[in-house]
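Fold this sequence, please.
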Amino acid sequence: MRAERLTDRIGYHLEGPVWWPRADEYRVVDMLAGDVLRIGAGPGGAPLRIPIGSAIAACLRPRRGGGAIIGRERDIALAENDDLVDPRPLAVLPAGPGVRGNEGGYDPLGRFLLGTMARDQRAGGGALHRVDPARPGAVETVLAAVTVSNGLAWAAEGDRAYYCDSGTGVVSAIEGDDFAGRRDFVRFDDDEGVPDGCCVDAEGGVWVAANGAGEVRRWSPEGALTAVVEVDARQVTACAFGGPGLRELLITTSREDLDDGDDPAAGSLFAVEPSVAGLPPLEYAG
């Protein structure tokens, strides 16, 4: 399959796409600009750019009943309303100097997980943390000593998570609430790019953005490669299902460390309609 380019260059490092059912729109982060983009919400259908009070907009997800939870450079914040105005700090990340928030998501119990990475991407410099709405403000570390904590998604049954560590090139399958049952699901070779963001479809297929390779790849739950989406930008960062019937796969791309004339479509959004639908986005229960 080949993805269609949906937009001009609208950001520097687009990441973390999520379908927002209450507004029938996608939202993505321009991570290194500290902004959220509401796709098609501005005048003439242009993206609407919203600063979130941090140099890093790591991740956002819808909150049950309205509003959002937002992963930022050094903390996790809550916005009471869908317009994301005046997010308030919820929990501080237990991270040392030179470590920042990166990507995250929800689990089936409505808890929010946010990963971190060292800015120099040193091995073992990151972690994956969890915030439970039953204990607001408390942060639990569920995975320590990861390198670049990235994509995180759950199968429909809620009994298996998929987790990407871009620094090691490994997509893990994780069974169990304590994250102890972790095993390699897919390992990227050096010439295959690195695993970045991911999502799971209604048939259990795992879609992973191959950053550096200009592709999104799908694996069956058994680990067989079943589909490849070609993208006209090398630095493919993440993917998410949305649109009518959740049948569209939105793909984000990045211009990080590129010269102005290099990879001209990078920093745009792409989409493709595969033959399978996605899963509804999970929501924060707090």
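The mean pLDDT is 95. DSSP finds no helices and 24 strands in the chain.
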